Amino acid sequence: MYAANGVHVLSEVVSSGDAYLTQLYALKCLGWAISDSSKLSEPALEKLRVSVREATPEELVSLVDVLQHGIHEERDGGAMLCASIATRGPSYALRDVGIVPPLIDMLKGVCALQTMWAAEALGTLSCSTDETRVAIAKEGAIPPLVALLRAGTAEQSQEAARALGNLANAGEPLAEIVDEGAISPLVALVRAGTDEQKQWAAFALGHIAVNEVSRVEIARDGGISPLVALLRTGTDEQKKWAAFALGNISVNIDANCVEIARDGGISPLVALVRDGTDEQKYDAAYALGHIAMNDANRVEIARDGGISPLVALARDGMDEQKQWAAYALGGIAENAVNRIAIARDGGISPLVALVRAGTDEQKQYAAYALGNIAVNNDANRKAIALEGGISLLVALVRAGTDQQKQWAAYALGYIAVSNDANCVEIARDGGISPLVALVRDGTDQQKHWAAYALGNIAENEANRIVIARDGGISPLVALVRAGTDEQKQCAALALGNIAVNNDANRVEIARDGGISPLVTLVRAGTDDQKQWAAFALGFVAVNNDANCVEIARDGGISPLVALVRNGTDGQKLQAVPALGYLASDNAENCLAIRREGAISPLVALLRAGTDIQKQFAAHTLGNLAVNNDDNRTAMVYEAVVAPLLTLLQAGTNGQKEEAAYALGNLAASNEANSTAIVREGALSPLVELVRTGTDAQKEWATYALKCVADNNDKHCVAIAREGGIPPVVALLRTGTADQRKQAAAVVANLACEDGPNRVAIAREGAIPPLAALVQNGTDEQKRCAAYALGNLAIGNEENCVAIVREGVVSPLVALLRAGTEEQKRFAAYTLGNLAADNDENRVIIAREEAISPLVELLRAGTNEQKEEAAYALGNLAFSNEANCAMMVRGGAVRPLVALVRAGDDTQTQWATYALLHIAAINAANREAIAREEGIAPLVALLRTGNPMQKNLAAGALGNLACDNDQNCVAIAREGAISLLVRLERAGIEAQKEYVALALSNLAQNEANGAAIAHQRVSTRNSLRSSRFQM
After folding, report:
1. Could you tell me the pTM of the whole model?
2. Cβ neighbours around 1022 below 10 Å, total
3. pLDDT in tens, 63-78
């Protein structure tokens, strides 16, 4: 027909013919021609169809009568006419007039020609509407059509296959077609039929393969291999329908995808996408899209050159070609190498163009493809943003179809991963609000991917605020509580990121009830849910004590510890820091974590975990050790020091930092642990980190040295021997703010007990930067620097002079007046040391008006401040009449006497010391002390004080008695003489000088002299007789 120019001739007959039947028969012939669209297209046939009139009702009734009651020859012609009228349509007219039952009867008849035309007519009728297809099936057409597949002539089985394919399109008849056993004979036709049988059998199998049961049966009956063979060597129509069938057979059944590839189906499909007809390209792209759901197949599609022609289709194809090319590229892009290739072949731009201006389906699949192209590929994320993809995807999330919203959210989620610029752009384009709306009110898949997107977008600090402001927290909490498994997982991740560095969000998550369901996920969720719920709980707990308490109260500690012990690597990675955050500054949680048995698995991670697990385990152990001696002891029992030392020496930068932090906390206020740490050889690597480490390593190594050196002279000497002083002093000069604070603290401890260290520290030039910190540092720097200078001043005249020369007195006095409580304490301490044995410093300190605030500390300070103020005033009073006068005038005597009377041991000691020096200067001061009733508590010290207190009390009383008869009488009246005489005879050597002074001055009063002489005789006799007591 084609060679004889039949299409043109028949078209002329249809459009210009006078005889109605001739037109109909010509139209029927042309209907066969559209099976090759290159000969006649569907639109061209449709134009010819409308040029032929519809059959009248009378003609249709007559036709039914012929089919039912005509003679054999009439029925032959009637069947052919019915098939021709069905080509013209409308099909409902034939259906409604009752044409279907007699056609079905003909299918069962013995006349081969009638059977063939009946099958042809039913096939054509079933091309129309689902209503007609269902009506044909209900009249019983399927069993005889299937029978024709098995036993009909070539023409009959061909038309039966076509009819069954069309009937399957309605959905409802599909089950009956499969149940009647149509698949096996259809496969046989694809394998060994005529060209037309193969074509229509492939067509039928493609329509039958729209559900999973049918797909499985087609594969089981061996249908894949012959369909692949058609792809390779079939006619154009066979290739088209084979590609269509394979596309449907591969939907969501991985075994079928594998078999198609194994039978060599990928290469010919790629060839069709590249060089096939328009319809072949469409169907082949559709098939490749489904086959690409298998990992190995994605690789093979790329290896066979499939990416480039699919990109070309997405760019330049017809609408449906673009749609399925985008879908195929999306599946192929689930492979990391393929993503790169798609971008390299220019695939991103046409996909963005489809999102911008494509059909609904194109937008949906292009969004899906862009999402996969962005997975784990930052270059592609940037390229998508550069092409303008973000605003277009945001528009889909806001106003697209349900599927577009789902895949646009999916794409935005992956585009946002670890790309702050994209996160910012998504927010700037208004993407957060519609994503929050999807989390609240979307479909299940929309909620899932919107939660995922918000989680990644929340990696940006400003976006966390916007998400909360747009009401995102509450619906995310709702998903964690009652969502699907995927929703719970993504919502937990999102809440974790929303909580990072944002305490207001942490509070809101807790207020919206987020903690309890997160704990539930950690306890009983899927593996991924446990991991991300642990992540979320960790960041909800950071720096929020109320949340830490609630997590513990809701039972969160036990399942987190279980994850550390037996979880996956990812779960351990999140549970370990979560426990660390829960332990931070929370003694009850630290206790609970230890009781749950966390220390042993944490130490095990130090030894054998991944690098990041080791780092987090060290940090968590460090937090557990803070101010908790039981935990420190338990850690040392678990042999924690050795693996921490290994990390310190040979770990990653993060491991070294956290190991130093943990060692510092282990050593803090724990002499046994400090000794163990030093014995294991930690000092040398700690000093090396102070010298050459990163900023964080320097800070925490310095902190560790500070803790090891605290109140341990041997350790201080060892640190100096390891060369620790020069790098610590260097940090004072050029370190970060935290490094300077820690360095000042180390210097303070190193200088506390060891005289040579004070010399070495000063020689390294520590005094000027310490003075600068006292003047201009942060609060913590001022505190630590003041303490360090105070220790450097102990017993070292040269250091005292150098410190004062640096102008430190004035800022120290300022701290006395307006510093923090600790600053006041250490300022007093340092001023006291600077005043010791240095007349000039006493003058300078007084001139800077230090005495008044010191007296104020005596009156209203903390216990430690009172102690240090008394000490400082005592040193300032030594041999300095002007200073003593200022103290008396400033009201120092009364609070000093009060401390002697009711202070703790140290306060009593230094208050007595101060009174001793104040009383040594002049009669007015002695009278002032007596007037404030200072004599009685001083005498009481002679009776009940410790040796130092007795010594100082004797000296103070001796000074009070000097040239003051009234005081002599008062001292004697309080019973001091007998106590002093006893100390004279039996006291320690250090007390005897002050005792002698006191007795000498008291003896200036005649009555006292006699009493002293009498008491000495009495005491001597008492001591002599005691030698012989048994």
Report:
1. 0.81
2. 11
3. 889 888 888 888 888 8
